Amino acid sequence: MANTKPINKTATIYVRVSTEEQAREGYSIPAQIEVLSQYCRLYNINIYKVYKDLGISGKPTANRHDLQQLLEDSEKGLLESFVTAYVTT
Fold first, then answer.
1. What is the pTM of this model?
2. Which of the residues are catalytic?
3. What is the number of alpha carbons within 13 Å of residue 70 lying toward its C-beta?
4. Locate the Resolvase/invertase-type recombinase catalytic domain: which residues (predicted)?
């Protein structure tokens, strides 16, 4: 990772776990939030909000309440950017 830190950036965090296996393998919601929060601290990114969908399959996205809320907030101009982790097992 680069040493350059963005100044006054704001991002939202989006996390999701769809299976118990993912949670057991270290991809739990708290683990994802911790890793992404560390990333934000490293790059001096303020966290606006954390969106999370628990136990919901990746498709269809209409069933992912917090993802839909994130998209609505983005359309309203409330979000500058977001960070997420890609997890596959």
1. 0.77
2. 18
3. 23
4. 10-89
